[in-house]
């Protein structure tokens, strides 16, 4: 997807919307006799620049998702919420069969509204106390009729850092470039939105159950 980065290019690109007049510098001081179109140019350029900034992030070419949130809870508390399968199940909206263990699968079912009883499975990779919890899974594997086992899974890493206000949680999901092209964009979009929601969920959970 293309996003213009130069302000003048932004304005010029939309000049056909504004009576095809030459694009001014949208961020120069407005004079008293400046035409109304120039004000529109400025607003349009600011709006599109903000859109461009929102999309130009570390998730380059839709290969990696990264989310961060500072939680008002200790490292120990956040670690327990992440790695105790009973606590994880509550904020992540899943029902798991048993504890997490490095090198072992964790299976269960989703309890999230609209996805109830959909199978959930991850393979735990690392559990470094109060520092790193990671696992692999198949992103947005929601079609019960499809076998995703032959696809290369993505890697989810949950990293913890102590801060003056609590704990910084950074979640990254990488490897979308290995997801089949016919479902890559949707899987990325849905998991990008999903991780945003899950960050809010864990924040609420540790706040309500300190």
Helix and strand element order: HHEHHEEEEEEH
- For the record, the CATH class of the largest domain is Alpha Beta
Largest sheet: 7 strands, antiparallel
The spatial strand order of the largest sheet comes to: 1-7-6-5-4-3-2
What is the straight-line distance between the termini? 43 Å
- What share of the residues lie within helices? 25-40%
How would you summarize the topology of this molecule?
Layout (H helix, E strand, L loop, with lengths): L6 H7 L22 H20 L8 E8 L3 H9 L1 H8 L1 E3 L8 E6 L8 E10 L3 E6 L16 E10 L2 E9 L6 H28 L2
Antiparallel strand pairs: 1-7, 2-3, 3-4, 4-5, 5-6, 6-7
Description of the structure:
It is a single chain. By secondary structure, the protein is an alpha+beta fold. It folds into two domains: 7-55, no CATH class; 60-208, Alpha-D-Glucose-1,6-Bisphosphate, Chain A, domain 4 (2-Layer Sandwich). Helix content is 34%, strand content 25%. α1 (7-13) crosses α2 (36-55) and α3 (75-83) packs across α4. It is globular, with a radius of gyration of 22 Å. 18% of the residues are buried. Residues 1-34 and 37-59 have low confidence and may be disordered.
Summary, kept brief:
This protein is α+β, with helices and mostly antiparallel strands and 210 residues long. It is 34% helix and 25% strand.
Descriptive key words:
seven-stranded antiparallel sheet; alpha+beta; 34% helix; globular; single chain; Alpha-D-Glucose-1,6-Bisphosphate, Chain A, domain 4; 210 residues
């Amino acid at each position: 997807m293309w996003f213009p980065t130069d302000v003048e290019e932004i304005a010029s690109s939309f000049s056909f919307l504004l009576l095809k007049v030459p694009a001014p510098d949208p961020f120069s001081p407005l004079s008293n006799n400046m035409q109304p179109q120039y004000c529109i140019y400025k607003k349009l350029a600011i709006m599109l620049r903000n859109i461009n900034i929102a999309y130009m992030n570390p998730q380059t070419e839709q290969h990696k998702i990264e989310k961060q949130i500072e939680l008002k809870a200790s490292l120990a508390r956040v670690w327990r919420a992440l790695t105790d399968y009973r606590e994880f199940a509550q904020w992540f909206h899943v029902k798991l069969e048993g504890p997490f263990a490095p090198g072992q699968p964790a299976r269960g079912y989703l309890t999230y509204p609209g996805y109830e009883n959909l199978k959930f499975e991850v393979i735990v990779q690392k559990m470094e106390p109060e520092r790193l919890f990671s696992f692999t899974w198949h992103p947005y594997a929601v079609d019960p009729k499809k076998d995703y086992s032959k696809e290369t899974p993505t890697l989810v890493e949950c990293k913890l850092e102590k801060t003056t206000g609590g704990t910084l949680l950074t979640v990254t999901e990488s490897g979308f470039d290995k997801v089949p092209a016919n479902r890559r964009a949707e899987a990325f979009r849905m998991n990008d939105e999903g991780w945003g929601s899950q960050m809010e969920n864990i924040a609420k959970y540790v706040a309500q159950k300190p």
